[in-house]
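Weekly puzzle thread! Below is a chain. First person to post its structure in token form gets bragging rights.
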Amino acid sequence: MKNNILKAHVALLGANVIYGANYLIAKGIMPNKIGPSAFIFLRIVGAGLLFWFIKSFLKEKIAEKDFPRLIFCGLLGVAANQLLFFHGLNLTSPIDASIIITTIPIVVLILSAFILKEKITKNKLLGLAIGGIGAVLLIWYGNQAEGTGSLLGNLLIFLNACSYGLYLVLIKPLMKKYSPLTVISWVFLFGFFFMLPFGIPDILQTDFSAFTTQTYLVIAFVIIGTTFLAYLFNIYALKTVTPSVTGSYVYLQPAVSFIMVSIYAYGFGHTEYAQDINPIKIASCFLVISGVYLISKTPKTKKPTN
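Winning reply:
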């Protein structure tokens, strides 16, 4: 059991490191090379094909009564989640997006308490408080200076957080009945149909002749890393840990974004990013990571006395 829990936390760590890197990487080609909806079209189609290719080796049937939930999860966790995120990221700054996305654990914890009757422990409350303070510090500080953020973009990212939070809660019961690969394959298939009306017009207007090697590498990272691997890691972890623990790892994303900006500024000589590195953001990231630790910490079980 302990080994499974460790694997689940490693999977969540990997998924959120990928997500944290995605803010800076995906932002780099939008909207100059590709529009948000076209990017999402390639993302869902590419990752969906990978999921179903592997799924073809796994013979597992879904009960008819579970399809409505799978369809709703496809809407929330794939179509709405990705459309809201990429359109929001297109309009706002990567650091704003990574901060706002930290509202996911709060959404998950509240919904889990109502829908799954999950117990809210003192550790989780304390972790949410500490991590929330770190996020609020970043938001407050970000509002004191000029930047590339926008109200509409930030609102779309927040709606994305709510959509993904509800998805994590609703998908959990299915993880007790089926393998992660079966669940995520069907979720992506249904998500594809919801995304289609938005993606087709944008993909037809995309000038693929203007793509460079870097553009293709970014798209490959988003399809294989941010979508295929990250979704698979999250769904795998949900078999072992609760949705609130899964959601709590989103607190790592601003920290990862901050680290990447630091490397980009000092490691590669892009000094224009150095102004984003300061004691307030360092302290905020420390609080965020501390919050993740407290929320994900497994309570000790008392040994029975003879």
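Puzzle host: Confirmed. Bonus trivia for everyone else. Residues 2-121+145-242 form one domain.
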